[in-house]
Write a structure and sequence with these properties.
CATH superfamily: NAD(P)-binding Rossmann-like Domain
Distance between the termini: 59 Å
Strand content: 5-15%
Strand order of the largest sheet: 3-2-1-4-5-6-7
CATH architecture: 3-Layer(aba) Sandwich
Number of strands: 7
Order of helices and strands: HEHEHEHEHEHEHHHEHH
CATH topology: Rossmann fold
Helix content: 40-55%
Low-confidence stretches: 1-10
Number of domains: 1
Largest sheet: 7 strands, parallel
CATH class: Alpha Beta
Length: about 280
């Protein structure tokens, strides 16, 4: 390798993506690799990470490191940070994307299922950000995308009881963190997609249910990732980003519709996409 190429490789920025083995996370990996970023790919499924890492390394000449860990394990965020420190890897771009849903009413699963869910969607996001943010601030450049959901901007519905609440946390967390870092060179957004083609509904067992919904309500994972990357690089970026004109209209509607009507609407529509049994 020539000195010029070596210098280029060592000065590349690095992106860490959780939930990178499929769906929106994998699309973030593909698009950031195409921009020349080295990658740290985090998910439980090592086999999928290995395939994706090899694909992106060969296509874009980037370094793709995999960390096969479960974010439901409270030790995982510090384990990731420790490994990055040992490898002298500085993360410039953090995508907190890992997530899933727990179907059914609140008392249906045992508490451990809820505890693991909160660890993945809330605690690990906050802790991983806490561990990686100082180096970004020191370098005066950083990007953090927290993948939330349109559910965070709507009234809660029956079934998947903790999902909207956890995503609402990500929105407020991102807004506050963005304000705190206005002068540091670090940008933070909450990305709030609606229904997106991915494995999410297969995992929650609602694939057959949501497949009956109109096509206009569905987003492509690649478009969602692209929206997030574009939004965070805008000069006058906003901390809450909603991909798709259809969902932006819905978000606008929720601001002006009386709460009683919105709650009635959610009760009626929730059966189309929530398993509340």
């Amino acid at each position: 390798m020539s000195p010029e190429n070596q210098a280029s490789r060592t000065t590349r920025r690095t992106a860490l993506i959780t939930g990178a083995s499929a769906g929106i996370g994998a699309e973030f990996a593909r698009q950031l690799a195409a921009r020349g970023m080295n990658l740290v790919l985090v998910a439980r499924r090592r086999d999928r990470l290995e395939v994706l890492a090899r694909e992106l390394s060969e296509q874009h000449g980037v370094t793709a490191t995999i960390i096969a860990r479960d974010l439901a394990d409270p030790d995982t965020p510090r384990s990731i940070a420790s490994r990055l420190h040992d490898q002298h890897t500085h993360v410039d771009f953090l995508v907190n994307n890992a997530g899933y849903g727990v179907p059914g009413k609140f008392n249906t699963p045992d508490w451990q299922a809820h505890s693991d869910f909160l660890q993945v969607l809330v605690t690990s996001v906050a802790e991983l950000t806490y561990l990686l943010l100082p180096a970004m601030q020191e370098n005066q450049w950083g990007r953090i995308i927290n993948v939330a959901s349109m559910a965070a901007l709507m009234p809660g519905s029956g079934g998947h009881t903790m999902y909207a609440a956890s995503k609402a946390f990500l929105v407020r967390f991102s807004e506050s963190l963005a304000m705190e870092n206005q002068q540091t060179g670090v940008r933070v957004i909450a990305l709030c997609p609606g229904f997106t083609y991915s494995e999410f509904h297969d995992v929650t067992g609602t694939r057959e249910l949501v497949s009956k919904m109109p096509k206009k309500m569905w987003l492509q994972a690649a478009d969602v990732a692209h929206s997030g990357i574009q939004a965070i690089e805008r000069k006058n970026f906003l901390p809450v980003v909603i991909p798709g004109s259809y969902y932006r209209r819905i978000a606008l509607l929720t601001r002006f519709m009386p709460q009683r009507l919105m709650l009635r609407y959610m009760r009626r529509r929730a059966r189309d996409f929530r398993n509340a049994d």
